[in-house]
Design a protein that fits this description.
Distance between the termini: 31 Å
Order of helices and strands: EEEHEEHEHHHEHEHEEHHH
CATH superfamily: P-loop containing nucleotide triphosphate hydrolases
Radius of gyration: 19 Å
Largest sheet: 6 strands, mixed
CATH topology: Rossmann fold
Shape: globular
Helix content: 25-40%
Bound molecules: adenosine-5'-triphosphate, magnesium ion
CATH architecture: 3-Layer(aba) Sandwich
Number of domains: 1
């Protein structure tokens, strides 16, 4: 459903500061896949997400989603079919609006109502309260609270809900639990598994089964615990791709060891891209 073919990207190409970041990356996802991505700092993970979301355009290569070539599609057009979360819990929600208003803003996009019609019907308020209760973050009684007043974990859970309220084709999670305390991180991770696995979050919602998900993480245990497949990025390429029995048999220590071995053997991207 997502197919990335020979993706190349160099920032500042042709200048002395040229920074090769993607080096002929290939990745293919089936519908409903939940792929965790690990890789060292600067490996190009966030750039890969930027390329998928359209905030970075590739120098070469193609990206297609559900059979549609989106390589040159504008970012805002892709946003309709993608949900995205970042490390910073402050992104993805409006701090000065209440929980209810944030929900209504996104909901109105799905129903075609004018976006500023923030006043909710009673039925909708009940619906949202139920959805919030399913997050199990104590938010269902706080519909009138400003989102800026929530904890990081609560806010990330809410952002997750907003991201899937209109079911996206693709969910992109860029270290979305990295800034949370361990307890909140675990909770948001569990919620991520449920939501990606297809748990219906909006009662009577339109969610149809599992959501195809890509999750970047620096936690090797989380990379193995969540999802169905784990890929490792190094210098702008996928250097390891694990699924099935091979993945489930692997411990976090073994994965870390394999990672170390793999990067020892990989050439630097500067040697792969001539003149970069
Ligand atoms: N817009 C940009 N302009 C110039 N250089 C950039 C840009 N975006 C990213 N880079 C550089 O590309 C390299 C890869 O960055 P990227 O953010 O993709 O890495 P990452 O794998 O997400 O790392 P981290 O684990 O630290 O988040 C880095 O050296 C970064 O400085
Ligand atoms: Mg990053």
């Amino acid at each position: 459903m997502l197919r990335i073919t020979e993706a190349w990207k160099t920032f500042g190409a042709g200048t002395p500061d040229a920074m090769p970041v993607l080096g002929g990356l290939n990745l293919h996802l089936e519908r409903g896949d939940f792929v965790t991505i690990i890789g060292s700092n600067g490996a190009g993970k966030s750039t890969l997400f930027n390329a998928i979301a359209g905030s970075v355009l590739l120098d070469r290569g193609r990206i297609s989603l559900d059979g549609e070539d989106i390589t040159w599609l504008r970012e805002h057009r892709r946003a309709r079919s993608m949900g995205r979360l970042f490390q910073d819990p402050r992104m993805g929600t409006a701090p000065d609006l209440t929980i209810e208003e944030n929900l209504a803003l996104v909901y109105s996009r799905g129903t075609g109502r004018p976006p500023l019609a923030l006043a909710l019907k009673r039925k909708e308020r009940g619906l949202f309260a139920e959805a919030l209760a399913r997050l199990d973050m104590g938010l269902e009684t706080r519909l009138k609270v400003r989102v800026g007043a929530l904890s990081g974990g609560q806010r990330q859970a809410l952002t997750l809900l907003l991201a899937v309220m209109i079911p996206p084709k693709l969910l992109l999670l860029d270290e979305h639990t990295a800034a949370l305390d361990p307890v909140a991180a675990k909770k948001v991770q569990a919620l991520t598994s449920e939501i990606a696995g297809g748990k219906e979050i909006l009662p009577g919602g339109r969610q149809g089964g599992p959501i195809t998900t890509l999750m970047i993480t620096h936690s090797i245990p989380a990379a193995l615990e969540l999802g169905t497949r784990t890929v490792m990025m190094h210098r702008g390429r996928i250097v390891m791709d694990l699924s099935g029995g091979e993945r489930s048999a692997l411990s976090a220590e073994e994965l870390l060891e394999r990672y170390r071995e793999t990067i020892r053997e990989e050439p630097a991207l500067e040697h792969i891209i001539p003149g970069a």
